[in-house]
Design a protein that fits this description.
CATH superfamily of the largest domain: ABC transporter type 1, transmembrane domain
Bound molecules: adenosine-5'-diphosphate, magnesium ion
Structural class: alpha/beta
Helix content: 55-70%
Largest sheet: 6 strands, mixed
Length: about 600
């Protein structure tokens, strides 16, 4: 990522931090306890060098064995207290951290699901999943890891410095004077590490995207059919190689920091013994051996935390990058959501009205995220041309309207406005006289059933897939709809019947079986309105015959909008609407339109596959 992104993120730091803190608010009691334990641990860990000093300067020269034993007990006691406190501390940080991860994940997951379908067509699944995995964890680390670390180090350094200065200020001053030697390079390296980690996250997401796309059945199939395994491996290797390279860079930069820290620490320790020893030799009354040893021990406790503190800002900023990446998704506007005063559509009768509908796909900006889109991100940022122009159409409850027209005429787009996959640009779509934008999305979804060309099934049992339409459906219900959809016999013949697992995207079923299963699913939902979008286009004649029979059942007693490519389907329609470049060119019954000798007559001859 470039400098611009870096600058931008720095500007955002404060807002991001404030929002992150907002998320942590529910945990502030436990966070307080966590900080309290850190203070306790730091205070207790400062004791051992003092006890050791007493052993060297007091108990040993005095020959006081009893005091020696007490000091021993003290050292052991400190060990125990530190162990217990550190367990409690870890429990708090883990429970806060994991719950925060849970909050963030659920929030992201919900938000993503409320994005319009256009968002999913543009977004790379892999990048999105990375946000829900890695970045959420990074955000959690920011809170418990980085914040905890800063408090821990700050307390530790303060206590250690106070004790050291009290013990012997001259030696302490000399030891601490080495500090600037270290702080400046530590900051530089820290910044570099931050940049590397950000770049690493991006590269990881790219690699994940390649995998999620290819490991999908459809993706894997494409790779095989085109015999592109070697090239795929090569592309993947390139991405993975960049991840590997940045890993080495990160490791080396981190180690450079660590090594120089060790070096300065060793220098300081040596210096303490040199100056302390000098003082002991010169004037024994001034400073004793035990004090020198204690100071030597403290110095080693000082440099690690100090080094980390010098980087605290950078650490926090790095951690905030994760929060920022999470917020970025959460902040995406949701153009299609329930209006504040949305009403429930109860007992729909199924009148569908297009009232002078104009539609074009809106510009992508707003409800999309360039960083989730990969190489195609720059394209298509403008609103499309008009896809639908002044569509005026009223479908009476229970009537069947067939939509015909050339490919690209706007048939799918028109039908997608009914379940509100998109919102009209001008005009309105109404169900039972209510503008769909005034109804709750859930009740619209209940009222409208869609059967498309390529229905999706989840990797789960047939029963679970069917019950997706109605979780409380009984087994008898399942059989009833499966019979109606002409799929029951097929299911019953499977080894596990309704408990048979369908593969990812239902690959163990044929196209026609999948189609009939999806029809059964819609039947179970029992919607007042059904949209069929070329539901039989991909099927062979035998499957089609079954699917047609299933569809007849589905359409019975419901309002239907049928996009058909078979004359046989169209002939039965109450009204045929011919779309041409987004406009209604003709409408009428089969006989009327044929007699008119217009576009329909031409389509009927050339494009609609005649069966009867
Ligand atoms: N997401 C989109 N963004 C911009 N244009 C689109 C989008 N989806 C479809 N289109 C365009 O809208 C037009 C109508 O498409 P569609 O409704 O699928 O036609 P049909 O179903 O009649 O074949 C086509 O020109 C198509 O290229
Ligand atoms: Mg279409």
């Amino acid at each position: 990522m470039g400098d611009a992104a870096e600058l931008r993120s720095r500007g955002l730091d404060r807002t991001v931090a404030r929002r992150a803190w907002g998320l942590a608010r529910p945990y502030r009691r436990r966070l307080l306890g966590f900080v309290g334990l850190i203070v306790l641990a730091a205070a207790v860990s400062a004791a051992p060098p003092l006890l050791i000093r007493e052993i060297i300067d007091g108990a040993i020269p005095d020959g006081d064995r009893q005091q020696l034993v007490w000091l021993f007990v003290g050292l052991v006691g400190v060990g125990f207290v530190v162990a217990v406190v550190s367990m409690a501390e870890r429990w708090l940080s883990a429970s806060i951290g994991e719950e925060l991860i849970l909050d963030l994940r659920t929030m992201l997951y919900r938000h993503v699901h409320t994005m319009p379908i256009a968002f999913f067509t543009r977004t790379q699944t892999g990048s999105l999943i990375t946000r829900l995995n890695n970045d959420v964890i990074g955000a959690q680390r920011a809170l418990t890891g980085t914040l905890g670390g800063i408090v821990d180090n700050l307390i530790g350094v303060t206590i250690t410095l106070i004790v050291m200065f009290t013990l012997e200020w001259r030696v302490t001053l000399i030891a601490v004077s080495l500090l600037p030697l270290f702080i400046v390079p530590a900051r530089v390296v820290g910044r570099r590490l931050q940049a590397l980690s950000r770049e690493g996250m991006g590269l990881n997401a790219e690699m994940n995207t390649v995998m999620t796309e290819r490991f999908h059945v459809a993706g894997a199939l494409l790779v095989k059919l085109f015999g592109r395994i070697d090239r795929e491996v090569e592309t993947f290797h390139d991405k993975a190689e960049r991840v590997a390279a940045i890993g080495v860079k990160q490791a080396m930069t981190g180690r450079a920091l660590f090594a120089s820290l060790g070096l300065v620490g060793a220098l300081a320790t040596a210096l303490v013994y040199l100056v302390g020893g000098w003082l002991v030799i010169g004037d024994a009354a001034d400073i004793q051996i035990g004090t020198v040893v204690a100071l030597g021990l403290y110095v080693t406790q000082l440099y690690g935390p100090l080094a980390q503190l010098s980087n605290a800002r950078v650490d926090l900023m790095t951690a905030l990058v994760s929060f920022e990446r999470v917020f970025e998704v959460v902040d995406l506007p949701r153009p299609i959501e329930d209006a504040p005063d949305a009403v429930e559509l109860t007992h729909p009768v199924g009148r569908v009205t297009f009232d002078h509908v104009w539609f074009r796909f809106p510009a992508a900006s707003g409800s999309h995220l360039v960083s989730l889109e990969g190489p195609t991100a720059e394209h298509g940022d403008d609103a499309s041309d008009w896809i639908l122009r002044d569509i005026d159409l009223d479908i009476a409850p229970g009537a069947m309207v067939a939509l015909v027209g050339r490919s690209g005429a706007g048939k799918s787009t028109l039908s997608s406005l009914v379940p509100r996959l998109h919102d009209v640009t001008e005009g309105a779509v109404l169900i039972d006289g209510h503008d769909v934008r005034d109804l709750t999305l859930a009740s619209v979804a209940d009222a409208v059933g869609v059967v498309s060309q390529d229905p999706h099934l989840f990797h789960d049992s047939i029963a679970v897939n069917l019950r997706y339409a109605r979780p409380d459906a009984s087994d008898a219900d399942l059989v009833r709809v499966a019979r109606a959809a002409r799929i029951h016999d097929t299911i019953a013949a499977l080894p596990d019947g309704y408990d048979t697992i369908v593969g990812e995207r239902g690959y163990r079923l044929s196209g026609g079986e999948k189609q009939r299963l999806s029809i059964a699913r819609v039947l179970l939902k029992d919607p007042a309105i059904v949209v069929l979008d070329e539901a039989t286009a991909h099927l062979d004649t035998e499957s089609e015959r079954l699917v047609q029979a299933a569809l007849k059942e589905t359409l019975h007693g419901r309002t239907s909008l049928v996009i058909a490519h078979r004359l046989s389907t169209v002939v039965d329609a109450d009204q045929i609407v011919v779309l041409d470049a987004g406009r209604i060119a003709e409408r009428g019954t089969h006989t009327e339109l044929l007699a008119a000798g217009g576009l329909y007559a031409e389509l009927a001859r050339t494009q609609l596959v005649g069966v009867g």
